[in-house]
Amino acid sequence: MSDQSPARMPDATPDFLELCTDTPGDGSRTGSQEPGTDGQGPDRSGTDTAPAGHRLLLGIRRFGEPFLLMAALSHGAGSSVLGLDRGKAGKVKVAEFRRISGRVLLVLRNKHHLATGDAAAVRAGAESFAVSVVWSAPVLGERDGAVIVDASGLALTDFHGAAEDLREREQGAYEVDPAASFPLVEEARTGPGGTRLPALLTLRGASPGPALRAVVPAPHALTVVQQLHLVPLPDPPLPARRYHPASGGYGIGHDDHGNGTSTGTAVRFQPRFRLEPVDPAAPAGPVREPIVFYVDPAVPEPVRTAVVEGGNWWQDAFERAGFPGAYRVEVAPEGLDDNDLGVNSVRWVHRDGRGWSHGQGLTDPRTGEIVCGRVRLGSQRVEQITALAEALHAPYGKADERERLAAVEDLVLSRMRQLAAHEIGHALGFMHNFASTHHPRPSVMDYPHPRVRVAPGGGIDSSDAYARGLGPWDHFLVAHAYGRFPGEDEEAALARLRSEAAGQGLLYVTDEDARDPGAAHADAVVWVSPVPDAFAALDEALAVRRTALKGFSRAVLPPGRQTGELERRAVLLQLYHRSQLTAVARLIGGARYAYGLAGEDGTGTVPVEAAAQHRALARLSELLRAEHLALPTHVLDALTPPAIRYGRTSEYFDTRAGHVFDPFAAVEATAALVTRELLDPARLNRLGWQHAVDPSVPAPGAVVDALLTTVWRRSDPVPADVVAAEAVRETAGWVVLRATLDVLRSDRLHGAVRVAIGGRLGRLAEELREGEVPEREAARTIGAFLAGDDSAGRLGQEPRIPPGAPI
What's the whole-model pTM score? Predict the structure, then answer.
């Protein structure tokens, strides 16, 4: 099988499935049998059979043959918490129809565990792992070789898993209500690309959670529209490209228990679209069917143009890989049905609250072929990046307002270009790369923070906030996933590409190693600006923060908005440095390693050098000083509580000061940025081992010592312009002490690490007993805790830090 083989879909609908008319006397039923029965009692599908004229009658021509089954939502819930977005596609399943006596069954095959080989091996695999019968219905009759069934119950099955999503998000126990759910008969479609069965699904439940209550008119009844797709497998299948851990692609696959033990059971493929060259013998050239993504016309201008521009950045990579004209992004033409599984779509999705955008590639699990790309861009992203840009530039009412507003718009549009390229990259089969900060040019598959600097004249410069175009890693991704190598061994050619990428210094680190709370890789941090030196990047962010806070006034907010929103703008600036802080923290207890195979060269896991760890610990300890924690007086003076009919959201600092802004809470949250990073149990455990191997590495107790000493034992004077400096310092002290006791309470520390931290805490308590009243109270709290009297629990929970991602 070669890359040149085109996919075959049925030439006519009756080759697979057909939709049948549902009128009395149409011949779709046989004998005197009543609709919904098989002579053995009522329909056992669990769903009432709809009356004639309101049923989805399906003609099935092939049994025992696998096909793809996928459910998508064309009408969603509108909540970032729920995740049930307009345009969201569920996981692709492999299904088949079986006929047993007078009934038709829909069976989901086990796509994760199987066995290939001879007939005996295949049989052993099929009998070893379970399948799932998820629906059945009686045969109503036969016509022109097709078995007719009422597929209404099939369409009303929650294949998307909306009820399960609600349970997992603790929003209540819901299930489909048959009395308030209906197949949308007139909107059903069938054709060479498969069959689509749409249905209005009402999920009914009790005790709805807060996210449901926020967006659903009657929260006990959530109604969405599900589009159920039944799609023939591509024939012939696309030749699979073996997944390599350093390829930057998604690794999808299964366990093949028919494989020999020497190769293992794991089988992984590189997802990719099928590209059929016009000239199969040529190493490069045009293709028969290009990859086209259609942008939702609901995206407003000028954002729509930015989305198209950013999405089309990938054209350059496909051309360099030998596929001119093989890819493009354009606005969807009027009348395009973007619910069709044959349409690669970029949807504009509205939600309540801060949320993520998504890119999905729906794949044939046999080979990794992407049969459809689905992208969802959250419209609230424009609001979020606009709020940050306005807070930085403070444009309103200024003499140069027009120029500042232009800078705001430019920052927003440059972010949306990058976002479009990023999410479409996922739909093309590519993973995140959170190490591209160290590349000559960042990858669009990274999570970027805007590169903002202080201009020579003292203003804010965001003219180079986001890189324009692809980086070298993005070109590698396309070449490795889609490149053709006629006359050359494919594995050798791909290995050459990976070697060349490594030779260019193109690091690759993805999700679990970069964004988890316990992530250890020193070179991969999300939401950092493209400055390889983490210390320089932090200094740059702090300079921008100081400058923006100095210029803070009502000018950061459009004149028609209520002044309570000034608080949200102040939060964005106060926590502006958070991600760069994380990048420095990652050096402490950090390590470096790369993905690969056992037969390839590699260095294993290498700890960050001790000097860099000590420097990082000292730098982050400084951020607990009052001058880095206190908001300027003029900022506090400008803030007012939200007006009536408005309120604080999770984007604001909490308040325990009634309805007004709480400066203590702002200090606590800002200090917690440091403690959340440095007192993470996984980091302390790593440090414990690194220090045991190399005593020059900071010990876990040294981290606690540095933090507590900075806030409780500081001897140098606080700058005079810091408002309420002693109150700020003491507040930070309690944040650090609370966090230290919290980590000691947890069961996530190894015993040796716990003992080392406890010993250093005891020594600090002895030193604090000679101090002022706050220090003596801290010493008493520590002593009680170490003695087993956890009266320190009254210190409360860790401060809540308002969300900063996605940007």
Answer: 0.93
DSSP state at residue 112: S
Helix, coil or strand: residue 328: strand
Tell me the helices (H) and strands (E) count for the chain, helix number first.
Answer: 22, 24
Q: Are residues 318 and 478 in contact, defined by beta-carbon separation less than 8 angstroms?
A: yes
Q: Which long-range contacts (CB under 8 A, 24 or more apart) does 770-777 make?
A: 771/712, 771/713, 774/730, 774/733, 775/712
Q: 134: helix, coil or strand? A: strand
Q: Which element (helix H / strand E) includes 344? A: strand 344-349
Q: What is the 8-class DSSP label of residue 530?
A: S
**118-149: per-residue pLDDT in tens?**
899 899 999 999 999 999 999 999 998 899 99
Cis peptide before 806 (omega within 30 of 0): yes
Distances in Å between the Cα of 464 and the Cα atoms of 198, 400, 414, 468 are 46, 20, 9, 9
* Residue 205, helix vs strand vs coil: strand
Cβ distance 29 to 35 under 8 Å?
yes
Residue 424 in this model has a pLDDT that exceeds 80: yes
> Do residues 73 and 86 lie in contact, with contact meaning Cβ atoms separated by under 8 Å?
yes
pLDDT tens digits, one per residue of 294-311: 999 999 999 999 999 999
SS3 for 356? Answer: coil
Q: Are 352 and 378 in contact (CB under 8 A)?
A: no
Helices (H), 169-276: 210-215
Give the other-Cβ count within 10 Å of 262's Cβ. 5
| Cβ neighbour number for residue 479 with a 10 Å cutoff | 20
Strands (DSSP E) contained in 296-341 are: 327-331
The secondary structure of 46-103 as a DSSP string is: SSPPPPTTS--EEEE---S--EEEEEEEEE---BTTT---TT-B---EEEEEEEETTE
Q: Are strands 327-331 and 291-295 parallel, antiparallel or unpaired?
A: parallel
Nearest residue to 143 (alpha-carbon basis) of 16, 61, 28: 28
